[in-house]
């Protein structure tokens, strides 16, 4: 500062030197340099630039519709009816779709999906969510007052992390996240200035979660911060594992013992493919462990319209359920979400359809079930295919894709490639993925974007491309990996 | 902390004592206690509880559809087509609506509005926004790269404030906001831990903005923080004023001289009613002031689908244009918005329609123009009506509602009422509004929720109710005010 207390005049007010330092620390690999280069290459291809491939195949992001998956007819019918209610007189639309639309509109201000909703979300939608959870977690109650609708799961996750972030220095909130992780977590933790606390998933045991590793991580974190939050993604992104009931029980026990707030990211709850695997919600397991746990452990769980069989990412629908949250904190949460007025009403309506889909006997039931089953079976098939083909490549080893939408294979990189990457200041798997993109048009995300054990290298690949494209992708990848290994050996 | 460095075990992890202190400081009046009580009363009425009125009339929030305003037909037609593209074969829909829908879908991944969009927003929408701005600000270029689509204007405003918040203690970012203000500003400033710097609008001069007051406020703030941002709402919420071109020029000059980043909240740009008033965008005035200013002053301006004639709040559409933003900061901004993936695609599509509405010669043009004009003329009439009737009440004085959707009249409260309120720990105008609600069912927001000069009292009332309801409201209010004054005199 200058003599009189005024700041010195600069060319610009807002520069990288004056801006929010936490924002600068944010990293977001899923939409990072690889994806930016892919977009550029697509433009170049359009402009007629010659490349050794004809199209970019994007397997970098869990965006089903972008990969050609068709929306669920019933969902879109109801959404069209909500948007343009004159269609309620059109006999092209089935009665069950009309009933859903009428019910949603009656719950909207002025019967319009264009009105602000209450900040916590449309009443009838929150009731339907609670009913869905009760059906899913047979025998366990759910209270609509504990449901908050959100702008995608992302919004809910950031909001809960925001509530939890407090303290300074050694008392600053530490947030335990799995490594590899979905980078929303590290990004939000950085933005909020919380402390990221890593625990490693066990690649050797199919990316499972070891309590001893949680214990190690917690112990280490207590030396320098206040670790009070434990985040779990199940089924896992980027790792595709599905946790066993026993593991979930152990995690809950651990959280209870160590006084941790649990965040369960369950956006892939319908995406379970492997035999012997099943989705168990944290809520259900918690309540089945008896009142000692169910009356005590604080839990927020998250769901979304973006994944599962519907893949409606663009609508930004989602919900969270909060369990055992202090009522005063809940009031603060309600206040906080009211500042941005409300989540998008169409996303709320879509969330309603997901939790209140056509029932047996309703006119749309058969078509709905067929569409849903077809999508989920195709994903199961592609999960298997991906694992099998990748494992035929020397230098690539891939755990079973038990659930979610991703494989996260480990790749062996020649020493010379690692050195060349380091010389360029690049993570070795970034170097690998960038070369893959330039030579084949395949767009993946390097493992370094998600975190991995020091000295190991991975990439994340979605299983979403249509089977024929996926086959092309996997074969090109195989060929590339062999060439790359040769070239750098 | 206990001996071994571990924190003492508590009943709950997350309590009001352990939570984020900035969140606790957030205040949000528009959805505060009055509104919560109004919702309660509505429930009581439904349950048959006897009240001195039959319905709650909500004039607390700028939510046009909730007050019965009908959506623009063309907008909803295109949205239905985007949602359920099978309707593109339906001859009930006009060709221009179909063309718009096709164009938007072609810009979406997999031609689906259910795909994630790029984080900055759909390409063609950003181009259309830039074209709109160029038409609006005749002769001044707009670059689609400077356009970011947002989840309502709220999201854009919070994002820019987040970028700008830095420093500690005396170097902490100060954000200058008008008093009275739209409480999103004070709430976000509190949440981010920035410093709120108040400048007062001049009620005596129709809520205009005096540069000398800006100067005073800035000077005072420099004693304790680093005021580097100046926020303007034009047309004003809650005050309904429309700034003159001269005033905007003076503000820009001030910002240039004092090195302030300008944030222009222009969500009410089509809501100008008073004769002699006109909307001037900050961007246009900035560029008309010549390169000395236009190459230098940093500006972010905000627009929304929620206001104007469309009132599509539920879709959460919006955009911001950033001018003279440091390219490195822009890269940071793009990274930051990518963490939450993208704004809702339906909101983006709707924003596109607002900036690319039916043109002369297109089949929907006439209907569109009629609907638009009818809505805006009705608002203009209600603005006048509100001012006139309120000014007939002794003890209420109301500035002209030149624009936006609100009147913010000053009320004289008897000493005895003020004392009774204070004894209850309530702001006197909160006391007044709560009594009004209980006795008449009218739901307004007390001036204290927006800020006002010490010792003055106001309420904010929207002009959105249909004319007949507005008349009832105004007459009941008149009667109540007289009774209240008598009772406490
Ligand atoms: C594990 C996980 N959580 C949350 C999200 C956020 O999804 P959305 O915000 O679209 O609901 C994703 C998206 O890929 C995810 O993979
Ligand atoms: C001045 C002002 N800015 C911003 C907003 C936010 O609107 P939205 O987020 O719905 O676009 C409002 C809403 O009332 C407003 O009055």
From TrEMBL, chains A, B:
Its EC number is 2.6.1.2. One of its GO terms (molecular function) is pyridoxal phosphate binding. Residues 77-472 form the Aminotransferase class I/classII large domain. SUPFAM superfamilies: PLP-dependent transferases (SSF53383). Its cofactor is pyridoxal 5'-phosphate. Keywords: Aminotransferase, Pyridoxal phosphate, Transferase. It holds the Pfam family Aminotran_1_2. GO terms for biological process: L-alanine catabolic process. Belongs to the class-I pyridoxal-phosphate-dependent aminotransferase family. Alanine aminotransferase subfamily. Catalyzes the reversible transamination between alanine and 2-oxoglutarate to form pyruvate and glutamate. Homodimer. This is alanine transaminase. It comes from Sinocyclocheilus anshuiensis. The lineage of its organism: Eukaryota, Metazoa, Chordata, Craniata, Vertebrata. The gene is gpt.
């Amino acid at each position: 500062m200058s003599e009189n207390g005024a700041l010195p005049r600069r060319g610009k007010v807002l520069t990288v030197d004056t801006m929010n330092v936490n924002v600068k620390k944010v990293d977001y690999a899923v939409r990072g340099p690889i994806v930016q280069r892919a977009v550029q290459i697509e433009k170049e291809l359009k402009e007629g630039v010659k490349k050794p491939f004809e199209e970019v195949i994007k397997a970098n992001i869990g965006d089903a519709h972008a990969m050609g998956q068709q929306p669920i007819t019933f969902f879109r019918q109801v959404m069209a009816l909500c948007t343009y209610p004159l269609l309620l007189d059109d006999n092209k639309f089935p009665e069950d779709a009309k009933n859903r639309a009428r019910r949603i509109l009656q719950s909207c201000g002025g019967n319009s999906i264009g009105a602000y909703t209450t900040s916590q979300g449309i009443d009838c939608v929150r009731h339907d969510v609670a009913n869905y959870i009760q059906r899913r977690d047979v025998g366990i109650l759910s209270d609509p007052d504990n449901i908050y609708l959100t702008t995608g799961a992302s919004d809910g996750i950031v909001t809960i992390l925001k509530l939890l972030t407090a303290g300074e220095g050694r008392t600053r909130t530490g947030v335990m996240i799995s490594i590899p992780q979905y980078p929303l977590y590290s990004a939000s933790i950085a933005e909020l200035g919380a402390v990221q606390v890593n625990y490693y998933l066990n690649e050797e045991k199919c990316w499972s979660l070891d309590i001893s590793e949680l214990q190690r991580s917690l112990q280490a974190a207590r030396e320098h911060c206040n670790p009070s939050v434990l985040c779990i993604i199940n089924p896992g992104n980027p790792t595709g594992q599905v946790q066993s009931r026993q593991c979930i029980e152990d995690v809950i026990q651990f959280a209870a013992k160590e006084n941790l707030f649990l965040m369960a990211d369950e956006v892939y709850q319908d995406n379970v493919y492997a035999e012997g695997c099943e989705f168990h919600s944290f809520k259900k397991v918690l309540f089945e462990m008896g009142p000692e746990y169910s009356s005590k452990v604080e839990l927020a769980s998250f769901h979304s319209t973006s994944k599962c069989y519907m893949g409606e990412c663009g609508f930004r629908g989602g919900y969270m359920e909060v369990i055992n949250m202090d009522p005063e904190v809940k009031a603060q949460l309600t206040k906080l979400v009211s500042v941005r007025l409300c989540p998008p009403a169409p996303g709320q309506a879509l969330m309603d359809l997901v939790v209140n889909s056509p029932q047996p006997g309703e006119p749309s039931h058969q078509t709905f079930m067929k569409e849903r089953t077809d999508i989920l079976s195709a994903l199961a098939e592609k999960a298997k295919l991906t694992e099998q083909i990748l494992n035929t490549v020397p230098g690539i080893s891939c755990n079973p894709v038990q659930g979610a939408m991703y494989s996260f294979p480990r790749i062996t990189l020649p020493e010379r490639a690692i050195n060349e990457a380091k010389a360029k200041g690049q993570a070795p798997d970034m170097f690998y993925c960038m070369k893959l993109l330039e030579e084949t048009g395949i767009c993946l995300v390097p493992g370094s974007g998600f975190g991995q054990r020091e000295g190991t290298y991975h990439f994340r690949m979605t299983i979403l491309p249509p089977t024929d494209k996926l086959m092309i992708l996997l074969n090109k990848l195989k060929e590339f990996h062999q060439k790359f290994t040769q070239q750098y050996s």
